[in-house]
Design brief:
Elements (H helix, E strand, L loop, with lengths): L1 E3 L1 H7 L9 H7 L7 E4 H17 L1 H18 L4 E2 L3 H10 L7 H13 L2 E3 L3 H4 L6 E2 L11
Parallel strand pairs: 1-2, 1-4, 2-3, 4-5
Helix pairs in contact: 3-4, 5-6
């Protein structure tokens, strides 16, 4: 099972118009969607992005809102992982001795607590957490299979 980072979900929006990264698309082709989860942090990040776009462009904001409500939320219904006490404590340990991004640390702590990998393009910020990582933007490898 895998936790998708926000950048993966955002890239998935581009699949329909053929603009998605071909390595990501190839990696996804043989995967069961039921093995993918989101952290509530990614839900928050997507919502922040939609709200920011909506402030500048009503039309684009409405398109993103529809994508979120009609595609993302139904696709991950029952597979959004909350932050609980154990995750909060694990996250705190990821900040000592070196503080890191709160959001990435919470996503990493969530994956670690649930024994999952994180799928992301942003591996450099996750490597120090020790969470198992998959970067489908890179050429497919045996570890991704």
């Amino acid at each position: 099972m895998m936790v998708l980072d926000t950048n993966v979900v955002s890239e998935l929006r581009r699949v329909g118009d053929g603009r998605a990264d071909p390595n990501l698309v190839a990696w996804l082709t043989d995967k069961d969607a039921g093995q993918f989860y989101l952290s509530v942090i990614s839900v928050m990040e997507l919502e922040i992005g939609i709200l920011r776009v909506s402030r500048k462009d009503d039309v684009k904001g409405a398109l993103l809102r529809r994508w979120m409500e009609e595609r993302v939320r139904p696709a991950f219904a029952g597979r959004v992982l909350a932050i609980n006490e154990a995750i909060a404590i694990r996250c705190a340990h990821l900040h000592v001795p070196d503080p890191r991004s709160e959001r990435d640390a919470l996503i990493a702590a969530t994956a670690l607590e649930h024994g999952m990998s994180v799928v992301t393009r942003n591996v450099k910020d996750f490597i120090p957490t020790g969470v198992a990582l998959i970067n489908p933007w890179e050429t497919r490898s045996a570890q991704d299979e």
